[in-house]
């Protein structure tokens, strides 16, 4: 049987507002790409957000996802769980968010520490000149507390929960990447070999290089949509 799609059916996809370098958007894109959930990606410039995003009202941070039924997912973790709910490839999604509640609580704890404590010190380390109360070395040392925890764990296992990558790894690595990039020479010489090879595995991966970090032109209303993952 020949199936004929109307133009409307062909283009109807959830819309993901994203910003290439944002670690929250990166984690959402990584999971969407990993699970192969099709969306339309709209690259945003934070200083000049598109009217369509502002018109949604409330927060206008990225990433944000609007599903085809109009339901809005305003935070990276909402988007990640939305993507999991759309995936019917069990072998792919099951290790990301195991059914076992102990494992789920571990994932939540890793992400919560990253988002609420590590991110705080990361911002100060990145922009130490904006926070003159302490120097860059102080902020870096506070951030290193998390690197030490990660190192202890990754020294024993390939990923944070064991031998399979889970949402804990996927949600955290973009922030460690940012921490490393503040002073790459320092990071390369630092004593976190397991964190480095774990991070390297993500950064060098095909999915990260060829899908997640592809540069797209800034989206403008009326222009064609970008299919993601391509
Ligand atoms: N908790 C949010 C944080 C997102 C966030 O802070 N995004 C930044 C870019 S990295 C942003 O949009 N900043 C501009 C703004 O908040 O208007 C999430 O998980 O999605």
From TrEMBL:
This is Glutathione S-transferase. Residues 100-221 form the GST C-terminal domain. PROSITE patterns: GST_CTER. One of its GO terms (molecular function) is transferase activity. It comes from Marinomonas profundi. PANTHER family: GLUTATHIONE S-TRANSFERASE OMEGA, PTHR43968. The keyword Lyase does not apply. It holds the Pfam family GST_C_2. GO terms for cellular component: cytoplasm. The lineage of its organism: Bacteria, Pseudomonadati, Pseudomonadota, Gammaproteobacteria, Oceanospirillales. It comes from the Bacteria. Gene3D superfamilies: 1.20.1050.10, Glutaredoxin. InterPro entries: Glutathione-S-Trfase_C-like (IPR010987), Glutathione-S-Trfase_C_sf (IPR036282), Glutathione_S-Trfase (IPR040079), Glutathione_S-Trfase_N (IPR004045), GST_Omega/HSP26 (IPR050983), Thioredoxin-like_sf (IPR036249). Keywords: Transferase.
């Amino acid at each position: 049987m020949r199936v004929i799609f109307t133009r409307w059916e062909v283009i109807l996809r959830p819309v993901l507002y994203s910003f290439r370098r944002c670690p929250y958007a990166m984690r959402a894109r990584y999971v969407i790409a990993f699970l192969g959930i099709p969306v339309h990606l709209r690259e945003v410039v934070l200083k000049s957000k598109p009217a369509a995003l502002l018109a949604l009202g409330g927060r206008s941070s990225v990433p944000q996802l609007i599903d085809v039924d109009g339901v809005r997912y305003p935070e990276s973790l909402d988007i990640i769980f939305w993507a999991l709910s759309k995936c019917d490839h069990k072998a792919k999604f099951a290790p990301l968010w195991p059914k076992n509640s102990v494992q789920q609580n571990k994932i939540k704890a890793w992400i919560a520490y990253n988002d609420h404590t590590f991110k705080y010190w990361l911002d100060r380390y990145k922009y130490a000149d904006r926070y003159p109360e302490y120097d860059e070395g102080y902020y870096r040392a506070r951030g290193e507390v998390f690197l030490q925890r990660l190192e202890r764990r990754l020294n024993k296992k390939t990923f944070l929960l064991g031998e399979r990558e889970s949402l804990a790894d996927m949600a955290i690595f973009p922030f460690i990447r940012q921490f490393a990039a503040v002073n790459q020479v320092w990071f390369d010489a630092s004593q976190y070999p397991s964190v480095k090879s774990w991070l390297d595995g993500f950064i060098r991966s095909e999915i990260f290089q060829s899908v997640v970090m592809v540069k797209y032109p800034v989206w403008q209303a009326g222009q064609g949509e970008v299919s993601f993952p391509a």
